[in-house]
Amino acid sequence: MRVLAAMSGGVDSAVAAARAVEAGHDVVGVHLALSAKPGTLRTGSRGCCTVEDAHDARRVADLLNIPFYVWDFAERFTEDVVEDFVAEYAAGRTPNPCLKCNERIKFEALLDKAIALGFDAVCTGHYARLALVDGKPELRRSADLAKDQSYVLASLTADQLARAMFPLGDSVKADVRVEATERGLAVAEKPDSYDICFIPDGDTRKFLTAKLGARPGHLVDDETGAVLGVHAGVHGFTVGQRHGLGIDTPAPDGKPRYVLSLEPVNGNVRVGSADRLAVSEIVASRPIWPSGTPLAGTVDCVAQVRAHGGTSDAQASLVDGQLLVRPTGDLRGVAPGQAVVLYRPDPAGDVVLGSGMISATR
User: Fold this and answer.
1) CA distance 255 to 273
2) How many domains does the chain have?
3) Is there a binding annotation on residue 128?
4) Same domain, yes or no, for 23 and 121?
5) Among 48, 49, 101, 301, which one carries the catalytic annotation?
6) In a domain, 147, yes or no
7) Active site includes 301?
8) Could you tell me if residue 20 is inside a domain?
9) What's the CA gap between 261 and 310, in Å, rounded?
10) Is 270 a member of any domain?
């Protein structure tokens, strides 16, 4: 097959590309330039998509003896990921930019261009497993659960997954680094990037304030309606947040307060006790079925509402084009704007059934 290997400059995409070459595919490497003004150097695990990353990707491609290109996707990334991120926070929601980047950049813009150029598939360094079952793609959790990225890939369609390759799905990260060393890849010990790539200093509140300005509002006790303090904008908070609320007076029972909901129209941030974070129903819009098969009736599943953690046994159904998910376990702090991903509740519990964007909770 003709395979386009997306090479970020990190160890995972480097080993994925190497495995694609070793499997006998006709591989071309591509690095996506996502910033109009990329930094020149990373600082440890801070940031990505820098000039240094592009150079690292090129050196790997040279070692693998494959063609290599840099494609400028900065304008598309700014519009579809960065501006969406800011708009979602301004609307009182908590987006996942990695999910949006996978959906709109790596498996829409990149895959579309790859197909137009005659490639059969796009290869990435994601930790997830992919198989064909009865002619349909089946997206599953990675063998390395600590690195599993099936959650942020669950917004991909069956057509997109049919042209995707995840060579690292059956591997654990420690083995990938050892393999990179054995292959002589200079990125073998390069730190992973943990922060949002376009906020390299990790200060999301500062970034959003610079974009949106101050939007003062009140911190309100959800039970009594009492005003407990003021804040500079709902974009500085997310549902389930405990620290950094700026409330001087303790709760009457002495227990911590948490953000329960955000009201961007009037600027209120409603806070209360942990037990008021419990969720009995999740409503999610824009459902996507990675296998191409929608839910039929009410199904038992495992629901995940955050990229890391936030899982519960649940029942899910498709009603009027929306997902209704009813957790049967203790699920708290579910933030609108995040994805809910449904997994099949078999002993392995690793097959993705579908996903949707959380619009409301009850």
Assistant:
1) 7
2) 2
3) no
4) yes
5) 101
6) no
7) no
8) yes
9) 17
10) yes
Residue range of the domain that includes 273: 214-277
Q: For residue 249, what are the CA distances in angstroms to 226, 232, 253?
A: 12, 18, 11
6 is in an annotated binding site: yes
Q: What is the Cα–Cα distance from 77 to 33, expressed in whole angstroms?
A: 9
The reply to whether 63 falls in a domain is yes
7 labeled binding residue: yes
> What Cα–Cα distance (Å) separates residue 78 from each residue in 7, 33, 124?
19, 11, 21
Looking at the chain, how many residues does it have? 362
Active site residue 197: yes
On whether the CB atoms of residues 127 and 168 are closer than 8 A, the answer is yes
Per-residue pLDDT tens for 154-184? 999 999 999 999 999 999 999 999 999 999 9
Q: Are 46 and 114 part of one and the same domain?
A: yes
171-221 pLDDT per residue, tens: 999 999 999 999 999 999 998 877 788 887 889 999 999 999 999 999 999
How far apart are the C-alpha atoms of 267 and 213, rounded to whole Å?
13
Cβ contact 109:74 at 8 Å? no
The secondary structure of residue 162, as a DSSP letter, is T
Note the pTM of the prediction, 2 decimals: 0.94
Do both 269 and 172 map to the same domain? no
